[in-house]
Structure formats: C-alpha cells, structure tokens
Amino acid sequence: MDHHDGHDPYLERRTRMARQQLADRGIQDERVLQAMNIVPRHEFVPRYSWNEAYEDHPVPIGEGQTISQPYIVAYMVAALGVEPSDTVLEIGTGTGYEAAILSRIAARVYTVERIASLAERARQNFARLAYDNIEVIVGDGSEGLLQFAPYKRIIVAAAAAAIPPALVQQLDDGGILVIPIGIAEQELQQVYKSGGKIEVTNLGGCRFVPLIGSG
C-alpha cells in the first residue's frame, strides 16, 4: 500500500527503528509498533532529509516546525491507548506523520493544523499513501474541533501553558488526552476523564514547540 512497486528501500531502517528505538526502550504496545513499522516516515519529511528520517531525533519540516523523534511519537500514541473503534483528535498535524500512525490503529482521525501550507502537504501525503480515514482541518488547535466532538482520544503535538478547557470539554467520558504542558520546563501529561472530572498522570519531561492559539 505504501510503495506500489513493492520495493521499499527504507524497510530495513524502519524495522531497525521499531526494534532499537522503540521496543528496546520499553514501547510494548504491539499495534503501535506495527504502525510505526508500516508507515513510511521518510515520506513525511523533505526529500533531502530522507536519509535521516529514521534516526532518533526530530527532523525539520519547514515553517519552524519539526516531526517529533520516533520514540516520542510512539510513547505518546501508546499512552493514548487507542482502541480500533475510536475516533481520535490530533492537534498539530505538521506534515501528517503522527496522524498517519494513528490512522493505522483508530477508526477515524481528525487533525487540526494552524499553518495552511503544512496542512496541504499532509493532505497530499495521505492521498499518496491512500490513508483515507484522516481529515485535515486548518484552524486553532487550542479550541479543539467542536464539530466532530466528542472524541475518545485527543493528542496534542505542541506544548500548552495549561490544559486547554476546550479539549477537556470535547473529550468523551472515559476518554484520554495526551498533551505536553509547560513553557520553559515541559512535562507530558495523560489526562483521563471520568464522570466529568479529570485525573492527570505525569509521563515525564519533554520538549515541544508551543501551542499557539487564543486558548
């Protein structure tokens, strides 16, 4: 599906990435590992960066944005605990790599990107790879995406000063939100919603670009 000629020159690198950077460092969710093994990460970075696409660091994608290092993507997606029937909201599409990973393990993915040129590149990437259960919306991610709410899972690829109220509102009961929180010092938080209340678990330090919006 990813390479129609049947030959993928990056398959070996991707397999090694999944094993050494993810499985060997504690990522145990088999569905996440399988998705990371399937989705061609190099397709989501500029062509001149293809050779570093599977290395253990972020890669610039233009507009001052980056595609997160593979481990962070896998760690965050594993922390979401996505079920096959879930609808997921992603904030911060970039060129679409994380949404592509989510699309292999969720029923449907809605993803919001502030920068129109990146959103368009993501759409082109999904079309080329025939990932047809993802919808890209240009907008202010701090406001969530009310029109398709509620969501079982919400993931945010930018750091907010505090948990945005709109995202908590749009999270379904029994749902999970994974988001980096903080300005200078950031920590990744897993937010579980039950009975209208939230429980927050700290998942450790992280570093993301700031979430820009009115929220």
Gist of the model:
The protein is of the alpha/beta class and 215 residues long.
Structure description:
The chain has 215 residues and is of the alpha/beta class. The protein has a single domain (11-206), classed as Vaccinia Virus protein VP39 (Rossmann fold). The chain has helices at 11-22, 30-38, 70-80, 97-103, 116-129, 165-170; strands at 59-62, 65-67, 87-91, 108-113, 134-138, 151-156, 171-181, 186-194, 197-206. Strands 5-4-3-6-7-8-9 form a seven-stranded mixed sheet. A two-stranded antiparallel sheet has the order 1-2. Strand 3 (87-91), helix 4 and strand 4 form a beta-alpha-beta unit. The longest helix is centred in the middle third of the chain and has 14 residues, at 116-129. It is globular and about 50 Å long.
The counted number of beta strands is: 9
Helix percentage: 25-40%
Element order, helices and strands? HHEEHEHEHEEHEEE
Classify the beta-strand content into a percent band: 25-35%
Quaternary structure classification: single chain
CATH superfamily: Vaccinia Virus protein VP39
Shape: globular
Number of helices: 6
Please mark out the parts with pLDDT under 50 across 5 or more consecutive residues, or reply none: 1-5
CATH topology label: Rossmann fold
Give the terminus-to-terminus CA distance.
39 Å
CATH class: Alpha Beta
Give the overall average pLDDT. Answer: 93
